[in-house]
Amino acid sequence: MISMVKKALAVKSLIPAAVLESRICMTRGQNTMLDSDLAKLYQVTTSNFNKTVQRNLSRFPEDFMFQLIPEEWEAFRSRKGNALGRGGRRYMPFVFTEQGVAMLSSVLKSQRAVQVNIAIMRTFVHLREATINHKDLVRKISEMESKYDGQFQAVFGAIRKLMEPSPAPGKRRIGFSASAR
User: Fold this and answer.
1) Is the full-model pTM beyond 0.90?
2) What are the contacts of 108-112 at 24+ separation with CB within 8 A?
3) Dihedral, 83, 85, 88, 91 alpha carbons, nearest 10
4) Residue 65 · residue 100 · CB < 8 Å
5) Does residue 61 carry a pLDDT above 50?
6) Hey, is 165 helix, strand or coil?
7) CA distance 65 to 49
């Protein structure tokens, strides 16, 4: 029993939830993770990770894993900034949905892979719960707004503004610009 508790604690501290949440992005309306991010978490090269997936391609239908198109890859890179590393890729990367990450546990057999998968699945569940709670809050505010008269409109407007996602900071160009004259 004690060893099970120690293992559970080890899994929780293996990868902080904030790190995992920062690697999950919305693509085609689904929460996804990039192949290179998953490879780093599993502590394998992206090449070896993708080779393992390709050997087991029948386990990864289109709704579990898909390849990004160039426009999606550019959007992904702009959201992540320059943190994606140096050099280029010879092909468009793959992204894995929650079901695809779950399927990885049947393909990747190491103890680290098992622990990482548990942490990732918990993060996906946490994000889903947060989304549901956010929708409930929006619904409740709408109900309250319809009950009260105009004197509370400023309060409800401020609450809605606080609930909106913050806009991504714009990139500032560095260097000399001829048009600045």
Assistant:
1) no
2) 108/42, 108/52, 110/42, 112/42, 112/43
3) -70
4) yes
5) yes
6) coil
7) 13
